[in-house]
Amino acid sequence: MTVLDIRDLSISYDTPRGSLKALRNVSMMIPEGRIVGIVGESGCGKSTLISSVIRLMAPNARVGSGEVRFKGADILGRSEAEMRALRGTDISMVFQDPMQTHNPVLTVGRQMVDIQYRDKKTKTEKLKRAAEMLALVGIPDPEARLNQYPFEFSGGMRQRIAIAMALMAKPSLLIADEPTTALDATLEVQIIKRLKELQEEVGCSILFISHHLGVIAELCDEVVVMYAGEVVESGSVRDVFHNPAHPYTRALLECDPGHIKVSTRVLPTIPGNIPDLINLPRGCIFAERCERRHAACTTRPEMRSAGAGHQAACLLIEERETA
Ligand code: ADP
Ligand code: MG
To answer: Which residues touch 74 (CB under 8 Å, ≥6 apart)?
Structure first.
């Protein structure tokens, strides 16, 4: 079954300078039980994409085209009440700053009990389950720690608690937007490993956003590479990272000396900038920064097959095949 199916999605923002085309004809899907990563420089539209899935879009956002289907049913047309019922239950989220998720004036235990309000269990049973979840994400002495407030935990601990809370509802889809970016590298690795174990237990799908190539390589089954509001490449982590078909993906990997080790903290910088999304260039969106640009790149390349389950939007693919 397909948990999330995004087809031909275009979203723009109204701005004083004109319409900013943040997403253009984006398609991607997440099969049941799979972990899909989205990688791309800042400003590529990753958060805009997520905001459409959880339907928490900015007031100036406009959906120009496309569909977002969650377990087969349309998301974009649902009422706000239906969306509220879905968020935090069948679709859970973890953000970069866990303080956004935690209420500072309630103990962690109280918050973890509250989140189970739909379950017909006693409070004692709910506390027991909360302690089990804390133990699962690697928090020592969980029973005692349930009585503490968020500020009494370190940043890494708070992020583990946020993950525990997100998984408590047994969601079909967990969305994590740069959840480990603010943490140090060692902690990041620990949390990613734990997340992977938990995912196997809970059996949910994960949409994981990061600009850390190493984290995506470590955690994900599949990867979607976004550039300036478009999907430029997608496929299994293995195919995309070991045999990249798009010059953008290749550039990301090449100027990354550690290659795709987890130690790679930040996305390497490619010379040049993302084009102005209000005045888009014609043709290939990456052409201006591409070493292999040629005359034909003034028309926008369609996504084409670069192998089984591997696609990229670049004319070079055909040339690679015929070479
Ligand atoms: P990412 O998460 O990949 O960094 P975003 O989805 O946040 O990218 O942003 C994509 C583009 O849309 C950027 O150019 C950003 O400046 C712009 N953008 C995001 N939100 C708004 C908004 N509410 N109004 C205008 N522009 C926005
Ligand atoms: Mg973002």
So the answer is: 67, 68
Q: Whose CA is nearest to atom 14 of ligand 1?
A: 43
| Interval 107-146: pLDDT, tens | 999 999 998 888 899 999 999 999 999 998 889 999 999 9
For residues 182 and 295, give the distance between their C-alpha atoms in angstroms, rounded to a whole number.
42
Q: Are 13 and 20 in contact (CB under 8 A)?
A: yes
Domains defined for the chain, CATH in brackets? 2-90+171-280 (3.40.50.300), 101-168 (no CATH)
Q: What is the position in ligand 1's atom list of the atom closest to the CA of 42?
A: 4
Whole-Å CA distances, 211 to 3, 165, 233, 284 = 23, 24, 15, 22
Pocket test for ligand 1, best of 13, 19, 210, 226 (most atoms within 8 A of CB): 13
CA of 40 to the centre of ligand 1 (A): 13
What pTM was computed for the model? 0.90
283's tokens: 């043709």
